[in-house]
Amino acid sequence: MTQAPLQSTPLALIGAGHTHLVGLRRWRDRGFRPPAGSVLINPDPEAWYSGMMPGLLAGRYQPEDCAIALEPLCANLGIELVIGQLAELNADQRLLRLDDGRQYQAELLSLNIGSSPACLLQDGSLPVIPVKPFATLYRQWRLWRDGHAPVNLALAGAGPAAFELALALQASLPNSRISLIGSTPLLARHPSTLQRRALRLLHERGIDYQLDQLTGIRQGRLLLASGIELEGFDALVLATGAQPHACQQTSGLRCDPLGFIAVDSCLRSLSHSAILASGDCAKVPDSHHCGVHAVRQGQTLADNLQALLCQQPLQRYQPQSRTLALLDTSDGRALLSYGPLAAAGRWARWWKTWLDTRFISHHRIQ
């Protein structure tokens, strides 16, 4: 097999996550064009907006409402869109190998490749559907909706994504019994009043919440850390905490103990000054993994990539001490939390819809 020729690029953006989308739009708004030959590498020709996935599964949105076509945005900035999956990264040489064998060497590199649900020991006896990539979950949901719905469906996770998806699946698959299994209290980062309201909502919709850690699957049974084995499920949706991609840990980049890329407050790698990382793939000081932080990192990332290309000083990213969370409950309402504050209502869902659709429309280029 002939090895693909090595292609050189002044700038490689890996992944069309929220941070890169915001950064590209900022460049367009400010009239900055990256050097000729710059590339954006992404597995798909569109970027899915994760905040709208529960609404899509609940039937409020169509797929085209939740995705941003990348080609128009890239073309507007003179960036080549490369469809491919990052398979290997050599940080010392800034060398990228894609899953189809194509290779790129970048002078400046930015990673915004997200994360994946934590791996699960299993014997293949039960279908397991991770929440990422979203397109895979959506295709499976369509099969369920169109007549192959599971009688008993388990979800693993205790965060906002798992909570919203459980309610969305219950609303769109009314003949399926939904069970949620979490290793921590439900919505542990949110105010206790919101946690209680969320648990009450699950109970009202007939969704069980089991506080236990899912450790594996054997012979169709879900194995829990307590020693309990749950049986009778037809499928499992995996919405557990973020896990870094394997290519990060073998790249030579300095990572935190969990394997996320360690960066400074300028979003630059602590070990390789010509590599930046943002969003869920990175460990950003004083920040945690969530969509709000990924979006807010976008302007700083764009400015710092431009600064490095123009040999100018970098700016620091200042995370908010409080972040707004709006959780769709698939009944025309939403839950809201901001620091210690919690609320709920139709107005909160309206606010969430407005924010989500504004994000999509702002980053689309016709």
Structural features, described:
The protein is of the alpha/beta class and 366 residues long. The chain has two domains: 188 residues, FAD/NAD(P)-binding domain (3-Layer(bba) Sandwich), CATH 3.50.50; 124 residues, FAD/NAD(P)-binding domain. The protein contains nine helices and 25 strands. The strands form seven sheets. Strands 1, 2, 5, 6, 7, 8 and 21 form a seven-stranded mixed sheet that branches. Strand 1, helix 1 and strand 2 form a beta-alpha-beta unit. The longest helix has 19 residues. The relative contact order is 0.17. The model has no long low-confidence stretch (mean pLDDT 93). GO terms for molecular function: NAD(P)H dehydrogenase (quinone) activity.
The CATH class designation of the largest domain is Alpha Beta
Distance between the termini: 40 Å
- The total count of strands amounts to 25
Q: Mean pLDDT score, rounded? A: 93
Q: CATH topology of the largest domain, anyone?
A: FAD/NAD(P)-binding domain
Main beta-sheet annotation: 7 strands, mixed
Low-confidence parts: none
Attribute tags:
single chain, flavoprotein, FAD/NAD(P)-binding domain-containing protein, globular, 25 strands, FAD/NAD(P)-binding domain, 366 residues, alpha/beta, 30% helix, five-stranded parallel beta sheet, 9 helices, NAD(P)H dehydrogenase (quinone) activity, FAD/NAD-bd_sf
Secondary structure blueprint with pairings:
Elements: E1 6-14, H1 18-30, E2 39-42, E3 46-48, H2 53-57, E4 67-69, H3 70-77, E5 80-83, E6 86-90, E7 95-98, E8 103-111, E9 116-117, E10 121-122, E11 128-130, H4 134-148, E12 152-156, H5 160-172, E13 177-182, H6 192-204, E14 208-211, E15 214-218, E16 221-224, E17 229-230, E18 235-238, E19 242-243, H7 246-249, E20 261-262, E21 275-277, E22 282-283, H8 291-309, E23 324-328, E24 334-338, E25 341-345, H9 346-363
Parallel strand pairs: 1-2, 1-8, 2-5, 8-21, 10-15, 11-18, 12-13, 12-18, 13-14, 20-22
Antiparallel strand pairs: 3-4, 6-7, 7-8, 9-19, 15-16, 16-17, 23-24, 24-25
Protein name: FAD/NAD(P)-binding domain-containing protein
InterPro entries: FAD/NAD-bd_sf, FAD/NAD-binding_dom, NADH-Q_oxidoreductase
GO molecular function: NAD(P)H dehydrogenase (quinone) activity
